[in-house]
């Protein structure tokens, strides 16, 4: 492929060499530099790709793309292209390199603080039951046909994302539904194509700090970038930040929520509460009119379902298909009910900060459990403030807290537990500490009472425990199965 063909759609300056160079592959990882490749110098948090420009020239790269001045031997003959931002340029170069696959797919992007993962799976489930072939890119995994690829980032680097799009197209996918993280938008990973639909779920302070967002205003502005990159925006009308987030949008806008002025809204909510099963029933009104039941508790489950309904309406999915798909939809590690003997409800959820834990526990409180039992730990080498806050939230909203280990990483699990106890001590909440997570889960199950709701929080979809740099297999579903076998039930 010619260099000039890869650069279409971006502003650049050719500071040496010529644009007629033939490029065999596109590379942004210095370890993969090869003869006749185009090497993009990315400014990372820990490593600056510009420091490998000389090495790329020595290894006979055809083209080097930079945003800073670099020293390259005159005799190398390499073409050097200068752009304002190499990450932004990489998105367009990658799209061209893979033949612009997103132009032939309907790409649905979901941004927001909470609800992204669940909503992607709901949309995928409904559309597939309607006969569409759907790819998925998200926090847990990327799904291409029958392949499931574990995720490293919620939104992959632009090169990898375009590669996934290409593979999805080759697999026969017509639609892609993907999570769009604020960090992914900030780092231009979703440039180089236009989303068919952009979705906004909600916004609360999160991901603010070093290597993330400087403040809430930046976080909000980055989320809003999606609505300058899509044809249709579907947004939560109930969220207080909706107007600010849409500032400068270039798309058509539709709304959903509980507000009766929304294009699609919910009313007549009824709780579904049986041992081992928590859900919610409600009426969909506005541009559609039907009843739906979702096998997940709380108002946020209604929001997730409304989002999926609002999207699928644009793909002419029939109401019975929507109803059936929502009733059967389950997302690993997101309010995931685990069947166990006994007249109590056991569930797994990814809630791993104070905000998500409070939302989860207050929702479960609405089901009037005999006791609300919360089992959780906190990750090592992370903010101590998170531990204090989660301890305080669980002490306030749970009847019993079981403090245990999560991913201790390079810290001692007991030190983390002591920090959690500092938070819980601000409340009058009852707690016990059982450092070994399997033993803690076994205790929760053995002491479950009729009508209890027991939530295992923090791990969610994760199937490992990280200790001193090593990820050991640990899936809570497997632990539960082993515990039940050990006690002979």
Task: Give structural notes.
The structure is a single chain. This protein has helices at residues 3-6, 53-58, 86-97, 116-129, 158-170, 182-186, 216-224, 242-245, 299-312, 319-328, 354-365, 384-397, 413-424, 437-446, 476-486; strands spanning 13-16, 25-27, 37-40, 63-66, 79-82, 106-111, 134-137, 141-144, 147-150, 175-179, 195-200, 230-236, 252-257, 264-274, 277-286, 290-294, 336-337, 345-349, 372-376, 400-403, 430-433, 453-457, 464-467, 470-473. The protein has 489 residues and is an alpha/beta fold. The protein has 3 domains: 3-85, Udp-n-acetylmuramoylalanyl-d-glutamate--2,6- Diaminopimelate Ligase, Chain: A, domain 1 (3-Layer(aba) Sandwich); 101-328, UDP-N-acetylmuramoyl-L-alanine:D-glutamate ligase; 336-486, Protein-Tyrosine Phosphatase, Chain A, CATH 3.90.190. Strand 23 (464-467) and strand 24 (470-473) form a beta hairpin. Helix 3 packs parallel to helix 5 and helix 4 (116-129) crosses helix 9. The model has no long low-confidence stretch (mean pLDDT 93).
């Amino acid at each position: 492929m010619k260099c000039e063909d890869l650069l279409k759609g971006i502003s650049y300056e050719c500071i040496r060499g010529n644009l007629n160079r033939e490029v065999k592959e596109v590379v942004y990882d210095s370890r993969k530099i090869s003869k006749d490749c185009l090497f993009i110098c990315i400014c990372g948090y820990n490593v600056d790709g510009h420091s490998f420009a000389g090495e790329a020239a020595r290894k006979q790269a055809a083209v080097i793309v930079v945003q800073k001045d670099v020293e390259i031997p005159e005799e190398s003959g390499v073409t050097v292209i200068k752009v304002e931002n190499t990450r932004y340029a990489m998105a367009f170069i990658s799209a061209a390199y893979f033949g612009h696959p997103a132009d032939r797919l309907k790409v649905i992007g979901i941004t927001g603080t909470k609800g992204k993962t669940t909503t992607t799976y709901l949309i995928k489930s409904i559309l597939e039951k309607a006969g569409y072939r759907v790819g998925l890119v998200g926090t847990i995994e990327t799904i291409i046909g029958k392949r499931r690829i574990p995720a490293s980032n919620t939104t992959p680097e632009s090169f990898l994302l375009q590669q996934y799009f290409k593979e999805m197209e080759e697999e026969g996918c017509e639609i892609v539904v993907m999570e769009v993280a604020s960090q992914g938008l900030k780092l231009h990973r979703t440039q180089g194509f236009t989303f068919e639909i952009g979705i906004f779920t909600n916004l609360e302070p999160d991901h603010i700090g070093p290597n993330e967002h400087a403040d809430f205003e930046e976080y909000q502005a980055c989320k809003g970038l999606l609505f300058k990159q899509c044809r249709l925006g579907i947004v939560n009308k109930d969220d207080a930040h909706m107007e600010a987030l849409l500032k400068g949008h270039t798309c058509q806008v539709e709304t959903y929520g509980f507000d009766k002025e929304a294009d699609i809204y919910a009313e007549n909510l009824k709780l579904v509460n049986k041992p081992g099963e928590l859900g919610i029933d409600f009426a969909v009104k506005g541009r559609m009119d039907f009843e739906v039941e979702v096998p997940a508790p709380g108002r946020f489950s209604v929001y997730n379902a409304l989002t999926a309904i609002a999207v699928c309406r644009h793909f002419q999915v029939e109401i019975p298909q929507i109803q059936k798909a929502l009733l059967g939809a389950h997302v690993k590690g997101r309010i995931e009910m685990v069947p166990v003997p006994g007249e109590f409800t056991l569930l797994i959820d990814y809630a791993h900060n104070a905000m998500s834990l409070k939302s989860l526990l207050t929702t479960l409180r609405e089901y009037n459990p005999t006791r609300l039992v919360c089992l959780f730990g906190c990750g090592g080498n992370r903010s101590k403030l998170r531990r204090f806050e989660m301890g305080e939230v669980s002490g306030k909203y749970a009847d019993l807290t079981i403090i245990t280990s999560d991913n201790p990483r390079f810290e001692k699990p007991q030190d983390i537990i002591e920090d959690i106890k500092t938070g819980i001590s601000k409340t009058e909440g009852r707690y016990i500490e059982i450092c070994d997570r399997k033993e803690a889960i076994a205790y929760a199950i053995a002491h479950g009472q009729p009508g209890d709701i027991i939530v295992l929080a923090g791990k969610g979809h994760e199937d490992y425990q990280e200790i001193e740099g090593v990820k050991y297999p640990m899936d809570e579903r497997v632990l539960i199965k082993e515990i039940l076998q050990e006690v002979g039930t």
